[in-house]
Specification:
The complex is a heterodimer.
Chain A: H1 3-10, E1 12-13, H2 21-31, H3 47-68, E2 90-91, H4 94-111, E3 121-127, E4 130-136, E5 140-146, E6 152-159, H5 164-167, E7 172-182, E8 185-194, E9 198-205, E10 213-216, E11 218-220, E12 223-229, E13 238-243, E14 248-253, H6 254-259
Antiparallel strand pairs in A: 2-3, 3-4, 4-5, 5-6, 7-8, 8-12, 9-10, 9-13, 11-12, 13-14
Chain B: H1 8-28, H2 33-49, H3 58-79, E1 89-92, H4 99-103, H5 105-116, H6 120-131, H7 136-143, H8 147-166, E2 185-186
Parallel strand pairs in B: 1-2
Helix pairs in contact in B: 1-2, 1-3, 2-3, 3-7, 5-8, 6-8, 7-8
Protein name (chain B): RNA polymerase sigma-70 factor (ECF subfamily)
Keywords (chain B): DNA-binding, Sigma factor, Transcription, Transcription regulation
Domain RNA polymerase sigma factor 70 region 4 type (chain B): 110-161
Chain lengths: 264, 190
């Protein structure tokens, strides 16, 4: 049963009222009130958004210096743990993906009985001996990690994700940024939903003996996922979006993205 | 919402037309209907004064208005010294066919009872998404909590609702409001 629909069905309907006299009177009283008329905005961005954009630009400039020194180094900072991990992902074979997706969705539904059994899309990747999948439905998204011993762990779930229309061309919603402890230590698992123009996602992790690490995410159908060994708290981790027209959006703070999506 | 025009009044009228019904429902779900008009008026007056702060995309503008209304409601509750949670009535716009009609009244009664056993915060979380159509990020902003925190709250609320639906005859006094001071209810379809 779809809970949301059942609730809506059980609710009391009311007719539209915007055209009725009380609503019209309220509107006229507001626009003719002695309150000074507001300054109209025509750029489509609120001042708050402008401030946020400025912060992003500054972050981009600051991150540019760090990013210049960042490079893809296999296993850097991973030590003996996660020895087969790679900064670039490999595709997850279709049969593997279907099996892991089914197991993941079953775990999610068993653990979180409030989620509906909506049709889901599974994205996946391999890095060394490990597999990672995200299960996406319109109402929730979840991730599962398959360890090298074959054990599947449900890693995260997020409810009420943003829709594709909201993300526009270059928006991004981080849908999980969980840390998982396996027998080899801690690792970080990230997934998200990106705008239609985004063709690549890279994650820059500041920790590492040789400098920042760049992790290339798997991007499929507007969704991305990546995981990497990480002992720390994720401070300073940034996300870079590569767009179809060659532009990049750099320096998006992973922490900020975890709190709120960036819409285009 | 078209922000191509520099005329603030035209922009506001467009916003008002597009969001009035949703905002009135938002208020009516949370406060006595007789007071909902005041909340709507105060919210739109705030929007008029701060039109430059209202996000341009309609769904974001709608969520912004809900956030203002949420604060108006909270201030009212505070000023009236009413230590009550959400007063939550579930209302919606009518549509042509109700699936619940086919499923029968009994299922609806179970759902109403399960709903009544949720806490105000749980009802709030489900209402913001299921009825008001907000994303987790928008709902978190309305409530002043982080998106992950809202996601967790929503997950727990839905899990508890399902649990109540599966065991509708647990030893809970269903014939009284579960949270003193609230008038939580689900209305029936017309």
């Amino acid at each position: 049963m779809n809970l949301d629909q059942a609730l809506r069905d059980a609710a009391e309907p009311v007719p539209p009222r915007v055209g009725q006299p009380p609503a019209r009177r309220l509107l006229e009283s507001i626009v003719t009130s002695p309150v000074p008329p507001p300054a109209a905005r025509t750029d489509g961005l609120s001042p708050r958004a402008v401030r946020r954009t400025r912060r992003t630009v500054l972050a981009v400039l600051a991150a540019g210096v760090a990013a210049a020194a960042a490079f893809l180094v296999p296993n850097l900072g991973a030590g003996a743990a996660y020895a087969s991990w790679t900064p670039r992902p490999a595709p997850l074979p279709a049969a593997d993906r279907a099996d892991l997706g089914d197991r993941c969705a079953a775990q999610v539904r068993a653990t979180f009985q409030g989620v509906d059994g909506a049709p889901s899309i599974v994205h996946g990747e391999k890095r060394g001996d490990y597999a990672y999948v995200s299960v996406v439905t319109p109402a929730w998204t979840a991730t599962c990690f398959r360890d090298r011993d074959g054990a599947v762990r449900q890693a995260s779930i997020m409810m009420a994700p943003v829709g594709a229309a909201t993300l526009g061309g270059a928006g991004v919603e981080m849908q999980s940024w969980a840390q998982l402890r396996t027998g080899e230590g801690l690792c970080r698992l990230m997934t998200g939903h990106v705008g239609a123009q985004v063709t690549g996602v890279e994650i820059t992790v500041p920790e590492g003996r040789g400098g920042p690490r760049v992790v290339q995410a798997t991007v499929e159908d507007g969704y991305f996922l990546a995981w990497y060994p990480e002992k720390g708290q994720g401070h300073g981790t940034t996300v870079t979006l590569r767009l179809a027209d060659g532009r990049t959006v750099e320096g998006l703070s992973a922490k900020d993205l975890h709190d709120a999506p960036v819409t285009d | 919402m078209n922000r191509s025009t520099p005329d603030p009044e035209a922009v506001f009228r467009e916003l008002y037309q597009a969001t009035y019904d949703d905002l009135l429902l938002f208020a009516e779900r949370r406060i006595h209907p007789a007071l909902a008009d005041d909340v709507v008026a105060e919210t739109f007056l705030t929007a008029w004064r701060r039109l430059g702060d209202v996000p341009a995309p309609l769904d974001e503008a709608r969520a912004w208005l809900f956030g203002v209304a949420h604060n108006v409601l909270r201030n009212r509750h505070r000023s009236e010294n009413r230590h009550q949670g959400l007063v939550l009535r579930i209302l919606r716009e009518p549509d042509a066919v109700s699936g619940a009609e086919a499923e029968g009244v009994a299922a609806r009664v179970d759902l109403v009872r399960a709903w009544q056993r949720l806490s105000p915060d749980e009802q709030q979380a489900i209402t913001l998404t299921a009825f008001e159509g907000l994303t987790g990020a928008q709902a978190g902003r309305v409530l002043g909590i982080s998106r992950p925190a809202f996601s967790l709250r929503l997950l727990r609320a839905r899990r508890r609702l399902r649990r109540h639906l599966r065991s509708p005859h647990e030893a809970v006094a269903l014939n009284r409001p579960p949270h003193p001071g609230t008038t939580t209810e689900i209305g029936t379809s017309a």
